Structure formats: C-alpha cells, structure tokens
Amino acid sequence: MVKTKPRIAARALILHQDRLLLVNAYPKHRLGLWCAPGGGCEAGQSLPENLAREVMEETGLSIAVGAPALVNEFHDPDSGFHQIDLFFRCTVTGGQIDPAWIDPEGVVTQRRFFSRAELASGQVRFKPDSLPAVAWGAQAAHYDPLEVILK
C-alpha cells in the first residue's frame, strides 16, 4: 500500500422541503453509495468557489455557500487513498434538479432529495455516517474521526 497525500474536497448540505440532496458517489452508481454533492478542491480557488463549481457540475444548481458544518475524513487502507471532506450549509439560488443533467466529469449520474426517515431506514447507503445528524442539526461544526471507506 502506498500512502498518498490527503485530497481535500468541499461538500454541500442542501436541505429543501426538509429533504437532503445527495448524489451517487461512484461512476455508474457503483456500490449504490450516496454522498453530498461536491468534490475536489483546485488550488487558487476558495473552498466556497470550489464548492459552487462542483455543485453546478454535478447537479446544475447554483448555490450560496454558508457556514461550515462538518469536517470528515475517510480512507481506503488497501490503496492508501485519504480524503478530507469539508461540509458547508448551502442554499439553492438558481436552477432545479433535472434528470437529464449531465455531469461533465461523468461521475454523477443520479441526484435526488432524501427525507430524514429514508436515511434512517437503513435502505439507503450513504457516507459519512453522521450525515443526517449534521444536516438536520443546528450545532456548530462537527469533526468526524477517520473512517474506512466502503468497498
């Protein structure tokens, strides 16, 4: 296993009508895993700029980026991959979810809003585990310790 430098990503917590927006985590929805929209940060852009760009690419939505809500780390012990996700509370300022939207990077192919009950049902696979508590919580930013990525 080769350890790599951690990748930094920004993710959006978008609640609309008491439902949380999630996107597929892997190309072609491999593993059936869902996550908050967002992605890797590029040098020379602020975290909010990176996040707004990623959300637009993955969902077609324009957003206003608010306060930080969660710092989450995950890794794959087999490959050495390590990512730090910074989650921000966001609001939609334009656009709507369109099933025909195409992510230019070809990763996100599904996007939808989930209720808190759906996420609590155990029928939806998502990461990080603390996502519902943080998304619907009002507490200050939370830190999740390093978790192993799903395989």
Topology:
Layout: E1 7-16, E2 19-24, E3 33-35, E4 38-40, H1 47-59, E5 62-75, E6 82-94, E7 111-115, H2 116-120, E8 125-126, H3 131-135, E9 142-148
Parallel strand pairs: 1-6, 3-8, 5-9
Antiparallel strand pairs: 1-2, 1-4, 2-3, 2-7, 5-6
Summed up, what is this model?
The chain has a single domain, classed as Nucleoside Triphosphate Pyrophosphohydrolase (Alpha-Beta Complex). Helices cover 15% and strands 42% of the residues. It has three helices and nine strands.
Care to describe what's here?
The protein is globular. The protein has a single domain (7-148), classed as Alpha-Beta Complex (Nucleoside Triphosphate Pyrophosphohydrolase). It has three helices and nine strands. With 151 residues, it is α/β, with parallel strands linked by helices. Strands 1, 2, 3, 4, 5, 6, 7, 8 and 9 form a nine-stranded mixed β-sheet that branches. A hairpin with a 6-residue loop joins strand 5 and strand 6. Helices cover 15% and strands 42% of the residues.
Keyword list:
about 150 residues; alpha/beta; Nucleoside Triphosphate Pyrophosphohydrolase; nine-stranded mixed β-sheet; 3 helices; about 15% helix; about 40% strand; globular
The largest pleated sheet is described as: 9 strands, mixed
Number of DSSP helices?
Answer: 3
What is the total tally of β strands?
A: 9
Query: Do you know the CATH topology?
Result: Nucleoside Triphosphate Pyrophosphohydrolase
State the order of secondary-structure elements, H for helix, E for strand: EEEEHEEEHEHE
The CATH superfamily turns out to be Nucleoside Triphosphate Pyrophosphohydrolase
CATH architecture: Alpha-Beta Complex
Please state the average pLDDT score.
Answer: 90
CATH class: Alpha Beta
